[in-house]
Amino acid sequence: xxxxxxxxxxxxxxxxxxxxxxxxxxxxxxxxxxxxxxxxxxxxxxxxxxxxxxxxxxxxxxxxxxxxxxxxxxxxxxxxxxxxxxxxxxxxxxxxxxxxxxxxxxxxxxxxxxxxxxxxxxxxxxxxxxxxxxxxxxxxxxxxxxxxxxxxxxxxxxxxxxxxxxxxxxxxxxxxxxxxxxxxxxxxxxxxxxxxxxxxxxxxxxxxxxxxxxxxxxxxxxxxxxxxxxxxxxxxxxxxxxxxxxxxxxxxxxxxxxxxxxxxxxxxxxxxxxxxxxxxxxxxxxxxxxxxxxxxxxxxxxxxxxxxxxxxxxxxxxxxxxxxxxxxxxx
Length: 331
Hints:
This protein has helices at about 1-15, 15-25, 25-40, 45-55, 65-80, 90-120, 270-280, 305-315; strands spanning about 120-125, 135, 140-145, 150-155, 155-165, 165-170, 180-185, 190, 195-200, 205-210, 215-220, 225, 230-235, 240-245, 255, 260-265, 280-285, 295-300, 315-320, 325-330. By secondary structure, the chain is α+β, with helices and mostly antiparallel strands. The strands form four sheets. Strands 1-4-5-7-8-11-12 form a seven-stranded mixed β-sheet. It has a seven-stranded antiparallel β-sheet with strand order 2-3-6-9-10-13-14, with no helix packed on it. Strand 7 and strand 8 form a beta hairpin. The chain is globular.
């Protein structure tokens, strides 16, 4: 029994969600842990022991007040003598000011650096066009961020992230505490315990495809949806278009995983929109019929040339790159 309590204590001390409850920083975590305590009354002693340890070892975080920094900066600037000097002292005065300038600049930069670091509480990961990065969050969750995308979260809460663009998540589960993981987009919020899924926020809608586990979606309109493995959901808050389907050859879908787009019955026009978003490039069709060609299969997108070659073979078309534009012609 003591071993179980010790194991729970160690998990709590390393759990970001539990720390948020201790510091009352995240309403979702606060509600979760309040409910958890009610359902696990026999663990109350361990819970409050962990809370006391966290509060006991916490160092006080002091933020530099902006007014304090402004006052210090002004005091430095006031030391610069800008009054006119007699002619015989001009050279001497100039030399003194020239020597003082680096010190003044260093002081200004130092104050700016201190202010910025104390004020910034967000971690932001961004990718450029055509860039893919692999991330490991502090809680153990791994994220593959596609090109032209952004992921951000607060330092104290890496299990509550905001996504713009596209990413594939492998969420680290917390079986001892059942702490949740959240992904927020412009259209919805994904509620996760531990699972693998793709989220795409392009083209004014959010697509979610679940590979493993189970997740719940909290839509912007207040509705909620549960997803099972192999299902895809598409939702836009702007026009409230909603789709919830089981992935099969009969439906139209697209998702991204391990640097490869998987398309099923997706028009070439839509496929090129994916490429435009990822690489920051435009496309132009020489004839309208080519836009309706359907693509089914995998298209690697880690390299633009390889990506173009794969699309050409799949669609039977020719794509020529001219500066920042792809010209598409039917063979």
